[in-house]
Design brief:
alpha/beta, 8-stranded mixed sheet, 4-stranded antiparallel sheet, binds zinc ion
Length: about 400
Amino acid sequence: MLKSALIDAARDLAPDIVSLRRAIHAEPELGLETPKTLAKVRAALDDIDLEWRTGTSCTGAVATLKGSKPANEGRGRVLLRGDMDALPMDEKTDLEFASTIPGRMHACGHDTHTAMLVGAARILAAKREDIAGEIDFMFQPGEEGYHGARFMLDDGLLGGNEERPLPGAAFALHIMPNAPFGVIGGRAGPLMAAADQFTITVKGQGGHASMPHDCVDPVPAAAAIVGAVQAMVTRRFNAASAVVVTVTQIHAGTAHNVIPDDAVVAGTMRTLTAENRAKVHALIAEVAASTAAAYGVSAECEIEHGFPVTVCDERAVTLGAKVSRELGGDGAWRDLPNPIMGAEDFSYVLEKVPGAMFFLGVAPQGKDWSACCAIHSPRMHVDENALPMGAATLAGCALEFLDHGWT
Ligand SMILES: [Zn+2]
Ligand SMILES: [Zn+2]
């Protein structure tokens, strides 16, 4: 199929993609349960013959489109993914379709991802007679810290058994409101970081603030740990390998004249390799314990694992660049020089299936994109005119893989 036909089909679908996006935007859902969003998706695809799979762990669903042609050897199925969940925050836009639910907002653009995926499904369903093999459309809840993709994998919705192996390739898009309009960006290797949380509890012995010598004060130790953690990052890791440790919480005390028993220091650790991930976990516990010991207190470090590193397959990135250029010309693709230290749970899929996530710039056309609010801003804004390009890119990546594989 000619790629120009995909763009034309996506433009024809633009009103539907936009109205679905706005309906999802107005009624955001959080976490692993997004039943109303899934109902909107299913209604939008109601007239299309798709095979639906749902699991028990969350409201994730996979819809499979079966092409009319037999699959090519070694590339029977490809997966496209869109996430459905929003963030627990108040929206501060004045959009007519702004969130109707206080404390919830689609500030990460997952409303647009879902709408573009529905658009891709409609584009591809209309070309079913040209499709060799199958396409899985993965509608996923719980991306914002809830491990929704992992639950869907564990439920077997993506395959992974003899009867239904995992797909041969997987692709996803993430919008970027502070990136040039309509441009697709990607990179081979690490694209986004592993994100893990730490909570260090410093244990001393409280008492009267005027008599610290009769107490074991945990507060100076906690303050020293904050500094020691930064020294650990700069002194114990190669400067060329990105490691970010950010202390985001310090809790201690209840009154100006009481030394507390405990102090808590908590934050996030971002790494780009499994090796550095394990190393930072071990070192932060060691640094906390040793620093605490120097102050005569003890420290316990608890680590909660977040998402793994999002690693894009070089072949999938080459494929995405080719498709983007065919759809939008040479300027439609940009090689990203660096990973970003945010995290993404599509990483669970990419641990098992070769593929890639790409970023789609949605800054308003003609505006200074670098000055636009980023994702997770309460004022985040999407130029919806970029959404057909996203839907066409997803559809194009699926077709390119089924037709030509990684060549
Ligand atoms: Zn997000
Ligand atoms: Zn997101």
